[in-house]
C-alpha cells in the first residue's frame, strides 16, 4: 500500500505554484481562441464603404469595412501617441461628417491623416481608414498635455476645446489609418499562444515530478510497503 507523508511548507508552495501555472496556461488558451475570432472577423469585414455608410449604417461587426472617400478636413491637428511597428504620433484632424437624418446637429469625426515615426521622423499619409472606438487609458498612461499638443488618452472634452468645437458634437469613434491587420493580431499569431500554453502546462507537470521525486528521495513517498525481511533486518540492527 502506498505511503505518503507530505512536507507541509513545500506542499503549500507547490499547490499555489500549480494553480498559477494552470491559470497561465488556460489564459493563453483563451487568448488563442479570442485572437482566432478577431482574425476571422478582420478577414470577413467586407468591402470598402464611404464615411457616411460606415457612420450611419454601421455593420455591428468587430471591425468596420475599409473606409475611403474625400476627407474635408478643418482646423488644427492633434498629436496622439501610439504604437505601430514602432512608437510614433498619429496626426488627428477634424472632419465634419454628413448628418444621417435631416435636421440633425453638426457632428465631427477625428480622422488620422498621418503618422510620424519617432525613430526616423518620417511622416506617412493615410489614404484608407477604419472606424473604431478609441481605446481607454490605463493608470500607467501619461497625462495629456494640451499646451504642447501631446495626447496619450482620448479626452473628448479637452480635445474638442483644443479644436474649438462643442464637446457633444465630437463622435465617440474615430477613423484610424487602415494599413493592414492591427499589430495586436499580427505580431503574436494564435499558434504562439498555443505554444505558450503548452509551456505553462509542461512546467506544471515538471513541478509535480520534482515534488514527488523529492518526497521519494526522503522516504516520504513509497509505492509499496516495506518487506517483512527488511523490517527484521532493521530490528536486528
From TrEMBL:
In which compartments does the protein localize?
A: Cell membrane; Membrane
Top-rank taxon of the source lineage equals: Bacteria
Q: What is its main location?
A: membrane
What keywords is this UniProt entry annotated with? Cell membrane, Membrane, Transmembrane, Transmembrane helix
Q: Write down the species.
A: Maricaulis maris
Extract the InterPro entries matched here: Surf1/Shy1, Surf1/Surf4
Please give the name of this protein. SURF1-like protein
* UniProt xrefs under PANTHER family: SURFEIT LOCUS PROTEIN, SURFEIT LOCUS PROTEIN 1
UniProt record similarity statement:
Belongs to the SURF1 family.
Topology of the protein relative to the lipid bilayer: Multi-pass membrane protein
* A cellular component term, taken from the record's GO annotations: plasma membrane
Spans through the membrane: 194-214
Amino acid at each position: 500500500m502506498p505511503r505518503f507523508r507530505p512536507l507541509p511548507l513545500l506542499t503549500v508552495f507547490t499547490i499555489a505554484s500549480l494553480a498559477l501555472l494552470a491559470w497561465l496556461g488556460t489564459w493563453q488558451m483563451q487568448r488563442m481562441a479570442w485572437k482566432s475570432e478577431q482574425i476571422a472577423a478582420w478577414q470577413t469585414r467586407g468591402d470598402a464603404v464611404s464615411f457616411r455608410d460606415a457612420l450611419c449604417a454601421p455593420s455591428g461587426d468587430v471591425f468596420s469595412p475599409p473606409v475611403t472617400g474625400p476627407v474635408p478636413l478643418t482646423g488644427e491637428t492633434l498629436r496622439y501617441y501610439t504604437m505601430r511597428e514602432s512608437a510614433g504620433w498619429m496626426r488627428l484632424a477634424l472632419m465634419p461628417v454628413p448628418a444621417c437624418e435631416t435636421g440633425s446637429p453638426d457632428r465631427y469625426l477625428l480622422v488620422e491623416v498621418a503618422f510620424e515615426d519617432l525613430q526616423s521622423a518620417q511622416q506617412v499619409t493615410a489614404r484608407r481608414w477604419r472606424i473604431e472606438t478609441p481605446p481607454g487609458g490605463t493608470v500607467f498612461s501619461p497625462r495629456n498635455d494640451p499646451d504642447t499638443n501631446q495626447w496619450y488618452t482620448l479626452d473628448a472634452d479637452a480635445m474638442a476645446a483644443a479644436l474649438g468645437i462643442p464637446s457633444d458634437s465630437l463622435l465617440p469613434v474615430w477613423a484610424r489609418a487602415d494599413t493592414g491587420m492591427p499589430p495586436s493580431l499580427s505580431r503574436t499569431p494564435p499558434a504562439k499562444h498555443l505554444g505558450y500554453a503548452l509551456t505553462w502546462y509542461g512546467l506544471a507537470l515538471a513541478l509535480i515530478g520534482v515534488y514527488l521525486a523529492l518526497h521519494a528521495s526522503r522516504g516520504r513517498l513509497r509505492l509499496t510497503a516495506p518487506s517483512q525481511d527488511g523490517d527484521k533486518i532493521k530490528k536486528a540492527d
